[in-house]
Amino acid sequence: SLGERVYFSLDRDTYSSEQLSRSMDYFLRILDDTSARRLDQRIARECRSYRPRRGDGHFTAYFEPVLRAKLQPDERYRYPVYAKPDDLTLVELGRFFPGDARTLNGIVRQGELFPYLTREEIDGRGLLRGRGLELAWVDDPVELFFLHIQGSGRLDLIDGGEMRVNFAGSNGLPYTSIARHMIDNRVVDSGSNAAIRHFLTHNPEQRDQILFRNRRYIFFRSVELDPKDGPVGSLGQPLVAGRSLATDQRYVPPGALMYIKTRRPVLDSAGNLAGWEKIGRFAFSHDTGAAIKGPGRGDIFWGAGERAGSTAGYVNERGDMIILVCGVEPLPGGRPA
After folding, report:
1. What is the torsional sign of CA 177, 64, 287, 302?
2. Helix 141-150 vs helix 204-211: angle between axes, to the nearest 10 degrees?
């Protein structure tokens, strides 16, 4: 559900959130009632299509990592997964400046809002220690960093059982790509997750200096989910591997139906890149991400675990993103006053 009625512009057309919900229902009826050979014809006839950026989409992929963890720290498991602190303050600028959708996160000191703690202050100087915010502890700071990048994950508890953790908030500071920094400074030749992990794991003396360049920090919450379900996206619904995308919702309405065309990597049994194959499929805007900015930008959720992570790490491809609106007409005259 898209919640309260809001309005979205696609090219020169405007739709309400209620219309987009009806469009999704209409599309599902088309799938139920139509044979495979007639499906393209019906969609072309009964759905309007919009391209946020014609023929110039850019796709990456993300996944749900699985980390070994403990509920109590020890000498090895000493890197905390933090819950959101109570003093993290959210400011919605639209409350002061109507139409401004931006938000700020910070901390209030003596009646003024200041930026919240950085990654270096939290992980390097331990300024959140002793506040009871630790959900669990992991043994690998590099894998913990990638958990932050993905925004959700599964903690395989040595104490027994599994904990699913999901994005609960950030410190509000801008995201900085360490991959870009490492490539620009010729630390690595490739910005793939595998290359970055390998360097940081084998060069611990440089690890923290590089990780702390990304001042953005993610806080988590424990969520109860069916083991078969994917992590929860920004709409509060479990993500579906290969079908759920994180998009920039300035250009793609939340929950929107899309058709995407791009390439996917094919891995061999050892997890190495063996080739590429073209894909074209229906997908849905189920999520957002701090690094997912611009029209035509899509981050495909690839699934959970090491294999999904290896595959997702290779995805950095051009393609096409088409938004479909089925069975409803644009609002006459645009958005109501």
Report:
1. positive
2. 30
Q: Each residue of 236-292: pLDDT tens digit?
A: 889 999 999 999 998 999 999 999 999 999 999 888 889 999 999 999 999 998 789
Whole-number Å distance between alpha carbons of 171 and 104: 9
Rg, the chain, Cα only: 21
Q: Give residue 237's Cα distance to chain centre.
A: 13
Residue 335: pLDDT above 70? Answer: no
pLDDT in tens, 109-165: 999 999 999 999 999 999 999 999 999 999 999 999 999 999 999 999 998 899 999
Please give the Cα distance from 320 to 26 (Å, whole number): 23
User: What is the rounded end-to-end Cα distance, in angstroms, of the chain?
Assistant: 23
pTM of the model: 0.79
Tokens 């700071």 -> residue = 141
d(CA 101, CA 277): 38
**Dihedral, CA atoms, 83, 231, 170, 77, nearest 10 degrees?**
50
CA-CA-CA-CA torsion for 11, 13, 14, 17, nearest 10 degrees? Answer: -80
Is residue 195 within 8 A of residue 183, CB to CB? The reply is no
Backbone region of residue 93 per phi and psi (left: phi > 0; alpha: psi in -120 to 50; beta: other values): alpha
